[in-house]
Amino acid sequence: MGKLNRRVAIITGGGTGIGRNIALEFAKEGAKVVIGSRNMANLEKVVEEIKALGGHSLAIATDVSVAEQVRSMVK
């Protein structure tokens, strides 16, 4: 049982780099991960990596400079 079981993590910039690595680590610890980034192709790759680990995730194309997109991601 991971430290983050039954938790939901929202991670922006999750398609590459540090954000991607954080998303993967949170998933390994049992969190359901919502990842956002402007590049949906990168997000889809991370979703597949999380699924391969046995985790659950949701990818949402999000530009954090647009407030309405951020609100939609959190809902």
UniProtKB/TrEMBL annotation:
GO molecular function terms listed in the Swiss-Prot or TrEMBL record: oxidoreductase activity
User: Per its UniProt record, what InterPro entries does this chain match?
Assistant: NAD(P)-bd_dom_sf, SDR_fam
Q: Is Cytoplasm included in the keywords of this UniProt record?
A: no
One Pfam match, given by its short name, reads: adh_short
Q: Which UniProt keywords apply?
A: Oxidoreductase
Similarity field: Belongs to the short-chain dehydrogenases/reductases (SDR) family.
Q: What is this protein called?
A: SDR family NAD(P)-dependent oxidoreductase
Q: What does UniProt list as this organism's lineage? A: unclassified sequences, metagenomes, ecological metagenomes
